[in-house]
Design goal:
The protein contains 9 helices and 15 strands. The protein is α/β, with parallel strands linked by helices. The strands form 3 sheets. Strands 3, 4, 5, 6, 7, 14 and 15 form a 7-stranded mixed beta sheet that branches.
Length: 334
């Protein structure tokens, strides 16, 4: 193996509120010689995701915070350049959590082999990746079934757009919110949502009451805040909530106030379940088989917003909080 220099994105300071470019730096490192049992991978695509914002703060959570002066972690699709491990060979396509860098060396257990026949390969970060699996696992978590009326917030994002399509395939009536007319059109015309509306044009509760006067059975929460409060008002008795995310509060410097109508959890006998996709990794093969078949058959669409170059990764990440993505935001490494 000749000397390989790899650029990587490091966290150099912890954000206060909205992250800025000053919180990050691009560093160049020289890879160590490849050892027996190791694999050299060149990343082709990397993922930027809202959950990463939580790991930039130095507080206890379900995963450790990112270390300062070290490369960030995140989903990536790469190609094996050289292998000293029997499990992989040169040219294999793999997914890993070692994004935010151009090259890396890892043990086989850090890699998951995928088929190069499915294109684009970035789909393994979207519909067939952890965001797609989050959507699939969330629907299973509260047993979403034929005939359910489901409301999805952040519906034009990576998770929401897949959750809506999968719910339609189960026979549900699907309602979604998004932040622009373009995104509303995407939900209705490409994802097949029955109803979609722009939460910026009128109060969410008013638009929900108009869209579903008889209420909803399930709320897939990617936003929290005002949208969660509205959902608590329109959920039917014995309704279910999938607590997947709360992007409206990720950059708040102090905690948001909770819903004023939380007592509805009691009076309506609601169920609310938290969702962390890593709890479902033992079902990854089942997910890939089921959702992969939908994708191959053209029943599931994978929408992407693609930026090019590792030097654009930080702006792509920050853009998530300004709603600059439709579907999955990915970075193509050049």
């Amino acid at each position: 193996m000749t000397d390989i220099m790899s650029r990587e994105i490091q966290l150099v300071s912890r954000p206060n509120g909205m992250p800025t470019a000053a919180n990050f730096a691009i560093a160049t490192t020289k890879l160590e010689p490849l050892q027996e049992g190791q694999v050299l991978v060149r990343n082709l695509y990397m993922s930027v995701d809202p959950y990463m914002r939580g790991r930039m703060s130095d507080r206890k959570s379900y995963v450790p915070p990112f270390a300062l002066g070290k490369p960030l972690d995140g989903g990536a699709v790469g190609e094996v350049i050289e292998s000293h491990a029997k499990e992989f060979k040169q040219g294999d396509v793999v997914i890993s959590s070692l994004g935010w860098r151009e090259y890396f060396i890892a043990a086989p257990k850090a890699l998951h082999l995928v088929s190069p026949d499915i294109q684009p390969l970035s789909v393994y970060l979207g519909a067939l990746g952890m965001t797609g699996m989050t959507a699939w696992a969330g629907l299973n978590l509260v047993e979403v079934k034929d005939g359910d009326v489901i409301f999805i917030s952040g519906a034009a994002g990576a998770v929401g757009s897949i959750a809506g399509q999968l719910a339609k395939l189960r026979g549900c009536r699907v309602i979604g919110t998004a932040g622009s007319a373009e995104k509303v059109k995407f939900l209705q015309e490409e994802c097949g949502f029955d109803i979609a509306f722009n939460y910026k044009t009128a109060p969410i509760i008013e638009q929900l009451n108009q869209a579903v006067p008889d209420g909803i059975d399930v709320y897939f929460d990617n936003v929290g805040g005002e949208t969660l409060e509205a959902a608590l008002s329109v959920l039917r008795t014995y309704g279910r909530i999938i607590a997947c995310g709360g992007i409206s509060g990720y950059n708040e410097e102090s905690p948001q106030a909770g819903p004023s109508n939380l007592f509805n959890m009691i009076t309506k006998r609601l169920t609310m379940k938290g969702l962390i996709v890593s709890d479902f990794l033992d079902l990854q093969d089942k997910f890939e088989q089921e959702v992969g078949s939908y994708f191959r058959d053209g029943k599931l669409k994978n929408k992407e917003t693609v930026v090019v170059g590792i030097d654009q990764a930080v702006s792509a990440f920050i853009g998530l909080f300004a709603g600059k993505n439709i579907g999955k935001m990915v970075v193509k490494l050049d």
